[in-house]
Specification:
Order of helices and strands: HHHHHHHHHHHHH
Distance between the termini: 25 Å
InterPro entries: Prenyltransferase_related, UbiA_prenyltransferase, UbiA_sf
Keywords: Membrane, Transmembrane, Transmembrane helix
Number of helices: 13
Helix content: over 70%
Subcellular location: Cell membrane
Protein name: Probable (S)-2,3-Di-O-farnesylgeranylglyceryl synthase
Membrane topology: Multi-pass membrane protein
Structural class: mainly alpha
Strand content: under 5%
Number of domains: 1
Largest sheet: none
CATH topology: Tetracycline Repressor, domain 2
Oligomer: single chain
CATH superfamily: UbiA prenyltransferase
Length: about 270
């Protein structure tokens, strides 16, 4: 997912010219993005080991399939590999890699237990590749800036919703998620509002002529229907089972949005 997002984002932002990037550069950027994402997830699992013993005992670390030492060594190796890949491309790539690495470590060590502030950092990290693509293409603005904001809001909603099934473990660990502080129903309502706002932003490219309306509009209409349905489902049934299934569906909706932007900008 990370690799696909990076390549499509650079293509969309550059109007599919990939100006300034050789094929080797593109592969290297993908390696750096993959390493950064992997390091963030591994360190998160290491730090959340006690929480996961309650919320997700099936994961490799709490299940004893991987030791914390092995996970730490793998994380350090991937962080170093990603840095070498980033510095071989350009300064913007290096800056985004180091910034992303610092933010992910800050989130995992200090901000995760803060609830909403931590959720905002996660949303920023996930939307960063799209802002990166805009900067590499010559500056902020254009379709990728819109999509980056859409992703930020959608991921923020997903992070808020993820607190619903994890209330017991989060309470025990002192994590102040929206669901813990204000209740599951409030968390579901906040997540739904963020999803709807994200979908609404998807119509901005049509207004500014960033995309081909004949190609882009059907995707956006489908995405809007799916998001509205999802928002209603999570508000009506903020249960553990529903939210766990909901997390994966939201990732699928973001992929639909990315494909819509990719196809919609092909002839523009």
């Amino acid at each position: 997912m990370v690799s696909l997002a990076i390549i499509l984002s650079l293509g969309i932002a550059s109007r599919w010219s990939f100006q300034g990037f050789t094929p080797i550069d593109l592969v290297t950027v993908v390696v750096a993005g993959y390493c950064l994402s992997s390091v963030a997830m591994i360190t998160n699992d290491i730090i959340d080991l006690e929480i996961d013993r309650i919320n997700a005992p099936h994961r490799p670390l709490p299940a004893g399939k991987v030791s914390t030492v092995e996970a730490t060594i793998l994380s350090i190796f991937l962080a170093a590999l990603g840095f070498l890949a980033a510095i071989s491309v350009d300064l913007i790539t290096t800056a985004f890699y180091l910034g992303g690495l610092a933010l992910s470590l800050l989130y995992n060590t200090l901000l995760k237990r803060t609830g909403l502030p931590g959720n905002i950092v996660v949303a920023a990290l996930v939307s960063a590749p799209f802002m990166y693509a805009s900067l590499e293409a010559g500056g902020l603005g254009g379709p990728m800036s819109v999509f980056s904001t859409m992703v930020f809001l959608a991921v923020l909603g997903r992070e808020v919703a993820k607190g619903v099934p994890d209330v017991e473990g989060d309470k025990a660990a002192g994590v102040r998620t929206v669901a813990v502080v204000f209740g599951k129903k409030t968390a579901a309502a906040v997540a739904s509002a963020l999803y709807l706002a994200s979908a609404a932003l998807g119509y901005i490219p049509l207004i500014y002529g960033y995309v081909d309306p004949l190609i882009y509009t059907p995707f956006m209409l489908l995405l809007t229907l799916l998001v509205v349905r999802e928002a209603l489902l999570i508000v009506k049934r903020p249960t553990r089972e529903n939210v766990l299934a909901h997390k994966n569906r939201v990732l699928g909706y973001m992929l639909i949005g990315l494909v819509a932007f990719a196809l919609g900008t092909l002839g523009i």
